[in-house]
Amino acid sequence: VRRLHRERYKKMSWLTPVPDSHKLSDQDITEFVECIIQPVLLAMFSKTGSLEAAQALQNLALMRPELVIPPVLEKTYPALETLTEPHQLTATLSCVIGVARSLVSGG
Fold first, then answer.
1. Proteasome activator Blm10 middle HEAT repeats region domain location, by residue (predicted)?
2. What DSSP designation does 78 have?
3. pLDDT tens sequence across 5-21
């Protein structure tokens, strides 16, 4: 996320500018998000907690919200209806909170 921000949005500074040939393309970002999203979605329900998954989803949603938000919401709806697994609801809600800014900003 920092590299993407530095390459596309940060104002000029004394740092050496990134050459155009080495900048991340939209295709690179999309492929990266597609590779990482499945393990992160599985980590939502891990025993170690969902905080790391929520942070990862937040960063991924900043880069490609259209690829991240739908699967998170698809996991949230069944978690709202389950009575036997309350930990699922807390895990999915923490992840929804992580992607909330990308959800309301519209990209």
1. 1-105
2. H
3. 877 876 767 777 778 88
Structure tokens at 68: 């991240």
Write down the pTM of the prediction.
0.81
Q: 54 with 68: CB under 8 angstroms?
A: no
Cα distance between residue 53 and residue 58, in whole Å: 8
φ, ψ dihedrals at 82, nearest 5°: -75, 140
CA dihedral of 107, 98, 55, 4, whole degrees rounded to 10: 10
The shares of helix, strand and coil residues in the chain, as percent rounded to the nearest 5, are 75, 0, 25
In angstroms, the CA 92 to CA 78 distance is 10
Round to whole Å and give the CA distance between 35 and 94. 22
Residue 27 CB neighbours (<10 A): 8
Amino acid identity of residue 38, one-letter, is Q
The whole-angstrom separation of Cα 53 and Cα 43 is 6
Map residue 30 onto helix, strand or coil: helix
In the chain, the amino acid numbered 12 is: M
